[in-house]
Amino acid sequence: MNEQKPVRPGGSELEIQRGVSIRVHATGILGKVIEVGGDRVTLEARGVKLDVDLSEIEVINTRSEAIQGKQGGGWRGPELGTAGLEVDLHGMRVDEVELELSRAVDHAILENLPEIRVIHGKGTGAIRKRVAKILEEDTRAVGFCMGYPYEGGVGVTIVVFGQES
Question: Which domains are seen in the chain, by residue range?
Answer without folding.
Answer: 4-65 (2.30.30.30), 86-161 (3.30.1370.110)
